[in-house]
Amino acid sequence: MTITASPSASSATRLVVPLPWGLRSPAVARRIAVRWLEAAECARTADAVLVVSELVTNAVRHTRGPCLLTLTEDGGSLDIAVTDHSEEMPDIHPPAGVDQRGFGLEIMRHLGDSIRVVPRIGGKTVHVALQVRTPAHDRRRPP
After folding, report:
1. In the predicted model, is pLDDT for residue 11 greater than 60?
2. Could you write out the DSSP letters of every residue in 8-47?
3. What is the structure's pLDDT at 22?
4. Which residues of 106-122 are buried (b: 16+ CB within 10 A; e: fewer)?
């Protein structure tokens, strides 16, 4: 697990956690995310942890390799990202009523301000952005 604080030019903080492929990875990701978000006094911890759980669960369900969870808080915005080793792109805008699958994406669409998928050779990264305000963030800003 890596926790970084960017140089003073940016107030971003980041958590990077490599997760092995396995049925326990979503639970591990939830526990780690809760601790990090609570330490940052994130106002939307429950929403963020649900998004983390859904993203990691999708990586476990639809791939056969490890994934990388990255949480980045910057200026009242939280980027939740999971990188996996599948080049198959999720359909983040499926037609309504066509399939019983995709409930996780629907949850993320409801909670998140945006969802984007960034393809890369050998995989992809799915990002969900949440608007958050943290007391710690407010203390870093001059009045």
Report:
1. yes
2. TT---EEEEEEE-SSTTHHHHHHHHHHHHHHHTT-TTHHH
3. 95
4. ebbeebbeebeeeeeee
